[in-house]
């Protein structure tokens, strides 16, 4: 391999030196052309399978659209009587018929045939933009297997493939004219017979060529082109190997699939329905991903750029959309631009996950600043830089000296919604010295809109002062405009078309005699929490426990992994005793973060069926349980957000199977009262948080305090069952 850097370090004017320089440029251009051709062939191999598959899906859609819809496209001008009489009932039939065949139908002239085909074509184009391929690994066929194998080559090449292709394009655009202009300098004799202006252009081109080759060598482009070509020219993976890789990295496969099929999410949805001015500003920022090790989805790239462009923001994406990787992408961009110090503050339960993610998804240095040696780790970070990872509690014990922060990331930022707490104050001190501040939370508010305002106030006091309860009264659009500079939220349904179905099933059970006895005693005691767990007080007679066993037996028969959530440790202990050694856990708030992660890893690693038990407060925050495709909730929760978070641990990007959610409920009990009373609260939560909107109702309508709810239910149940004498 020629040492381009050493070669271009000496002056090159004309003759031999210029010829060698031109030869190096031609060789590098050859590598650049080769990597682009290799990538194009790999893409063509995917399209050879994908395009017919998309056409088939679009054909099915068109076959279900009544032919009368053609009138909608032509605003009623198209006469369909002759077509309908000839047996045309769907748009698909018209679209699949040649013009001359339509004209043979009595009563269909050239104008009608052209109108009908044009209208059908418009509908077909619209349908093609909406269809997307879902790969079902439980029922693979030859076509999807071929698609997975073709995609595997590009996935294996990784994000370097895209970087190499883009760099090769830029390099060719730069070098091609320089090589042409510098060509006369390769021969002294030719230069003697070249005019002064052409000679000057040739010498200038030689100098520019030397600088361009040195820059390419500094960026290690020759090595990048060579390695990516090797990756793209590997023999195709075997079908079993490709399917195994798909299960492990399905998000990357679907990311490529969306890119190649053009079936990504609606742009407005992917950009959180931001006003045009802000969205344009974010799009204009070019994300430097040279220090990333993963490819980003389009909406993820937009989220990272939003954080960079707007500087102090909340990303409130729904659980499972990759808020962590968006934050890492923003950090990597700043690091690539020369910044050195970054700080991530998060709950202890996700500290290990953050450390893993930073190392796996970027080239950034991750330094946990936690535990007994946190001060030493902090000193090391202060001196050497990197991404310091600490917890809310540990942050308060660290020196408050001024360390210039390129970015502060606060994960599960709703933990600092109350500015009067010490954790919020500690975060505020660091935020004052940070150029960028990024709050991450899937639940920016739980019971009150004021909590959301509190988060924004810590980032943009000026904006928080503008946002008030009057925006709720004024309608959702007013609120959206008010918070847009600092708030971005996207939902799974809007941006992950490939995410498998989420099936909710409420499992209503009748109390057994033993259940009813325990429940009546709990009601008589007036203890709300005792009422909530009474259905498990007598394990031998528990109707809920029996149904839980049945669900797990069914999952075992189908080789599915199950996560069982409960608010109560006592309930999990009862479930654990009933299931025996097959159950991992339970994960609880008192369990060290490292042990929690170990349990999740063990649960995820094994093939086939497994059961993981977890307190919903501990397992519903931060831990990824996407190996599970069955979620069992032992009882309904007071806060809808707890259930949303817990389910999202399994139903998130990377999940490859339908997720079944079974909520165990006892009829005529505290469960039923909770479900009824919280139904409205859940709908309002959706209206406020999930769509980044305010409902028409006043903000206070969302507030149902836990204590008030408990008192109301206890009183109603005592009245229904009769107060004790």
UniProtKB/TrEMBL annotation:
Residues 547-700 form the Helicase C-terminal domain. The keyword Secreted does not apply. GO terms for molecular function: ATP binding; helicase activity; hydrolase activity. Residues 304-462 form the Helicase ATP-binding domain. Keywords: ATP-binding, Helicase, Hydrolase, Nucleotide-binding. Signal peptide: none annotated. Pfam families: Helicase_C, SNF2-rel_dom. InterPro entries: Helicase_ATP-bd (IPR014001), Helicase_C-like (IPR001650), P-loop_NTPase (IPR027417), SNF2-like_sf (IPR038718), SNF2/RAD54-like_C (IPR049730), SNF2_N (IPR000330). SUPFAM superfamilies: P-loop containing nucleoside triphosphate hydrolases. This is DEAD/DEAH box helicase. It comes from Streptomyces arboris.
């Amino acid at each position: 391999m020629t040492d381009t850097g050493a070669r271009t370090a000496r002056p090159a004017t004309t003759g031999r030196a210029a010829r060698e320089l031109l030869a190096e440029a031609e060789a590098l251009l050859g590598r650049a052309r080769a990597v682009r051709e290799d990538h194009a062939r790999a893409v063509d191999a995917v399209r050879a399978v994908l395009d017919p598959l998309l056409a088939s899906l679009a054909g099915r859609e068109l076959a279900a659209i009544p032919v009368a819809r053609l009138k909608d496209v032509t605003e009623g001008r198209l006469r369909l009587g002759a077509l309908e009489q000839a047996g045309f009932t769907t748009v698909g039939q018209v679209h699949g018929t040649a013009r001359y065949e339509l004209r043979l139908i009595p009563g269909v002239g050239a104008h009608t045939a052209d109108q009908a085909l044009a209208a059908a074509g418009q509908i077909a184009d619209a349908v093609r933009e909406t269809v997307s391929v879902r790969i079902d690994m439980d029922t693979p066929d030859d076509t999807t297997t071929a698609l997975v194998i073709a995609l595997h080559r590009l996935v294996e090449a990784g994000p370097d493939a895209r970087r190499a292709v883009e760099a090769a394009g830029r390099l060719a655009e730069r070098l091609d004219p320089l090589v042409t202009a510098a060509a006369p300098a390769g021969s002294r004799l030719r230069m003697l017979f070249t005019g002064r202006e052409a000679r000057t252009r040739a010498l200038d081109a030689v100098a520019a060529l030397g600088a361009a080759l040195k820059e390419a060598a500094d960026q290690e482009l020759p090595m990048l082109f060579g390695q990516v070509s090797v990756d793209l020219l590997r023999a195709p993976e075997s079908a079993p190997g490709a399917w195994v890789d798909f299960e492990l990295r399905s998000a990357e496969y679907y990311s490529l699939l969306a890119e190649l099929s053009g079936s990504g999410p609606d742009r407005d949805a992917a950009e959180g329905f931001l006003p045009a001015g802000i969205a344009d500003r974010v799009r204009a920022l070019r994300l430097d991903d040279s220090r990333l090790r993963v490819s980003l989805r389009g909406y993820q790239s937009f989220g990272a750029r939003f954080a960079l462009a707007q500087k102090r923001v909340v990303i409130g994406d729904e659980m499972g959309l990759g808020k962590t990787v968006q934050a890492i992408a923003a950090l990597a961009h700043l690091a690539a631009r020369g910044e050195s110090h970054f700080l991530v503050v998060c709950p202890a339960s996700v500290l290990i996950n953050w450390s893993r993610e930073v190392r796996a998804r970027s080239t950034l240095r991750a330094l946990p600043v936690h535990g007994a040696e946190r001060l030493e780790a902090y000193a090391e970070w202060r001196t050497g830089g990197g991404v310091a990872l600490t917890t809310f509690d540990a942050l308060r014990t660290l020196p408050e000296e001024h360390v210039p922060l390129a970015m502060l990331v606060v994960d599960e930022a709703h933990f600092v919604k109350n500015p009067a707490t010490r954790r919020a104050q500690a975060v505020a001190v660091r935020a004052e010295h940070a150029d960028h501040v990024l709050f991450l939370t899937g639940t920016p508010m739980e019971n009150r809109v004021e909590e959301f305002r509190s988060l924004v106030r810590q980032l943009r006091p000026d904006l928080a002062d503008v946002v008030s309860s009057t925006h709720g009264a004024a309608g959702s659009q007013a609120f959206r405009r008010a918070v847009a500079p600092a708030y971005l939220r996207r939902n799974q349904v809007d941006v992950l078309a490939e995410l498998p179905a989420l099936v909710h099933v409420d499992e209503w059970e009748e109390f057994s005699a033993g259940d009813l006895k325990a429940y009546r005693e709990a009601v008589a005691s007036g203890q709300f929490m005792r009422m909530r767990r009474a259905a498990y007080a007598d394990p031998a007679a528990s109707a809920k426990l029996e149904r839980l066993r049945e669900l797990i037996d069914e999952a075992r028969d189908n080789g599915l992994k199950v996560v069982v959530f409960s608010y109560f440790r006592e309930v999990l202990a009862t479930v654990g005793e009933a299931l025996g050694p097959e159950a991992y856990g339970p994960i609880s708030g008192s369990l060290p973060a490292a042990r929690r992660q170990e349990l999740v890893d063990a649960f995820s690693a094994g093939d086939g069926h497994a059961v993981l038990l977890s307190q919903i407060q501990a397992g519903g925050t931060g831990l990824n349980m996407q190996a599970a495709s069955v979620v069992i909730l032992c009882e309904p929760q007071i806060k809808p957000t707890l259930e949303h978070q817990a389910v999202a641990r399994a139903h998130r990007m990377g999940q490859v199977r339908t997720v079944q959610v079974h909520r165990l409920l006892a009829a005529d009990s505290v469960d039923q009262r909770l479900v009824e009373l919280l139904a409205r609260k859940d709908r309002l939560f959706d209206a406020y948080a999930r769509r980044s909107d305010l409902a028409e109702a006043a903000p206070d309508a969302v507030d149902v305090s836990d204590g008030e709810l408990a008192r109301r239910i206890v009183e109603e149940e005592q009245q229904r069952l009769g107060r004790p004498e």
